[in-house]
Amino acid sequence: MAHKVMEVLAGLKKFQQDNPRKKYLVVNDDKCGKIREHQDKLHTGEFVDRLTEKAISDYAKDSRHKFYRKERAEIRQTVETFLTWNDGQFDPRLRNIYYPEPHFDIPIEEEWAKFDFVDAHGKQQTGQLAIKGTIDLVTLVNEETIEVVDWKSGRRLDWATGEEKTYEKMWGDPQLLLYFYAMSKMFPEFKYRIMSIFFYKDTEGKPDPVPYSFCFDESDEERFLEMLKNRVGEIKENMSPKPVDPTRKDLKCKYLCHFYKNKFEGESNCMCRSVEKSLKEEGMDVVLEKYTAPDFNIGFYEAPG
Ligand code: SF4
Q: Which of 83, 96, 112, 301 could anchor a disulfide with 127, C-beta 3.0 to 4.6 Å?
């Protein structure tokens, strides 16, 4: 919800940049609908209050969770932290917005990233590995430089090990490298790309959160592809797959996974359970224990049609 507020503010600022003569700023948001506001209100706390309430209500109506006053206040506080840190360094209204919340879906143009096999139902599956995701905000620093800002409401932890991610460890963080790779493909016109991550709950004992900024270069593209290739290789070779959760009640299964939400034609179970069943029928071992997923999710492009 706090992210949504930031996204809408960035969208309104972009509208203002593109339409300097217009008094009313407009954004058509996928969740909050049409937001139209007078430019004089953009920087007011009253508007941010209203926008935050709207974002909360629009998400809350599709949720079983009730958002009580304390939680609403927490979300508003999160927005305030994002907006006011270091005199508004990450306030999108004070930035030159290049792209608010770009989505990416980038095929990996490498021979090893192609797949072509016959599945358990005798169907030919052909496709290509792709990376998909969303970046919170891309801002223009100067003609040669963009800065990507990613607000993180979670802790700076490696979820597989429970250890805190240090600055050094983050250099090898697959998600950061993936973002960087996506940026280099989406915005090749820029020579320099800065990636800033704002873990607002990590204060390192100081009164304020500490953002982390990284400047990757071309050698990191190679590093990312190598990491991805190894991970894809591991998955391809895996003869003993472990479900994220044998009961499929995990949030990743229920809310995020294509293989939970969809069924193969003629099957009553979700795709994931169908695959598990067919693997078992073929005598393969599906390990029914909780699997701690690495902080690195990849998906395969579906074959056209
Ligand atoms: S494939 Fe999807 S549904 Fe199956 S265990 Fe993994 S995340 Fe859950």
A: 301
Fill in the DSSP letter of residue 253: I
Neighbours of 289 (CB within 10 A): 8
Segment 271-291 mean pLDDT: 73
Q: How far apart are CA 133 and CA 179, in angstroms?
A: 8
Please give the pLDDT value at position 56.
96
Instruction: Report the C-alpha gap between 222 and 108 in whole angstroms.
Output: 12
DSSP state of 36: E
Q: What integer pLDDT is reported at residue 208 of this predicted model? A: 64
pLDDT band at 301 (very low <50, low <70, confident <90, very high): very low
Q: What residues are paired with 267 via a beta bridge?
A: none
Positive or negative, the Cα torsion across 100, 153, 5, 61? positive
| Alpha carbon of 274 to ligand 1 centroid (Å) | 11
Model pTM greater than 0.90? no
- pLDDT, averaged across the chain: 85
Q: Is the CB of 260 under 6 A from ligand 1?
A: yes
Does ligand 1 come within 6 angstroms of the Cβ of 248?
yes
